Amino acid sequence: MNEGDVRRAAPRIAVIAGTPQLVCGARALGVRTVLVHDAGGPVPGCADDADEVLAVDLADTGALHTALARLHAGHPLQRVLSLTESGLLPAAAVAERLGLPGNALRTVRLLQDKREMRTLLNARGLSPVRTAAPRDAAELAAFSAATGGPVILKPAAGSGSEAVFRVETPADAQDVWARFAAAGGTGPVAEEFLDGPEISVETFTYDGTHTVITMTDKDVWPSFVEAGHTVPSRLPAGVREETAALVAAFLDAVGLREGPAHTEVKITSGGPRIIESHNRIGGDKIRELVRRAYGLDLPALTVGCPLGLLAPPPAEPVASAGAAIRFLAPAPGTVRRIRVPEPERADDIVSLDVAVGDRVGPVRGSDDRAGHVLVTGTDAADAARRGAALRDRVLIETGD
């Protein structure tokens, strides 16, 4: 068999709006990749690691299907994958049209539409939460009055904690409605405020069976933007078991068949309640926290498991360490001075997204954060302590 025949015999996938970790994970497994990026944007840096690169309007499913169908006819694709919000729907749509295995388009749509997801959950009595779809400030005020407490207003298809606001009383509805619109919020969804700590549940699904990889404790600012994550969660075992059962039932309800999922949950006084979910790896470097704590490479599993190249993760992965990320949020103003401390360990990371002279604003979304620190600890408590200590040693001085 010559080199060309060997290359053609290798498994082949399309990666839509792909991440470097997915493309590189495929390459390490000997899987050929067709990287498809949006024609309206720049060529991703990971293009150099792909075997083929296509520029297509990702909003045009027909054009995407035509481009991949031509390639599929000559050298069949085994999967169409994505780990990005912008790529999940196009990947599911074109995979369905090509007749390839994977998660159904209906499943991905449910996970990207908080309104439809909540309707399904409430209809099945899973994690019931009072909700409404207000059309104006008056309807938002009426819903706030009906719940008798604070409510949350958020966009149906939002991510990154963008345009999420708390409505304290009906009298606040007009002001919050205006701020929601100013923040670019669309498809408004109102839900009763859920008390208690927030966690995320990182799962991996193989052939319809869901494995909880870990639960991630979250620190959240008043703006609902994540201030940090720690794995594994330090919640009591009974709470973790109840949450795991709820998330598995939820993933069954939406029809998830394969791959990673990131499900956000509030641990309320009445039990766990699902906030939202995505059929991808959690952001904020959660994949790196999982790698440090469990030795699991989630992007590699995303490619390798459905192709039979890697075994699915064990039913109850055991953490060998703790890992934590903490985000930096200096006071609003112009950055005057930065001082980065020497890390205590070689694998401690300090990453800055600002430089002297940059203007820093309040944190209203994930992109407003000024950087992060990432550490490993002997366990979750040690990682949380080390992460907070390193964060506090980073100086980003601002002024007007």
Automatic annotation (TrEMBL):
Ordered alphabetically, the record's keywords are:
ATP-binding, Ligase, Nucleotide-binding
This protein is called Biotin carboxylase
Q: One Pfam family of this protein, by short name?
A: LAL_C2
MF terms (GO), sorted A to Z: ATP binding; ligase activity; metal ion binding
**Domain named ATP-grasp: residues:** 118-307
Query: Entry's PANTHER family?
Result: ATP-GRASP ENZYME FSQD, FUMIPYRROLE BIOSYNTHESIS PROTEIN C
Task: Name the SUPFAM superfamilies on file.
Answer: Glutathione synthetase ATP-binding domain-like (SSF56059)
Please verify whether the record's keywords include ATP-binding.
yes
* Species the sequence originates in: Streptomyces griseochromogenes
Q: Does the keyword Nucleotide-binding apply?
A: yes
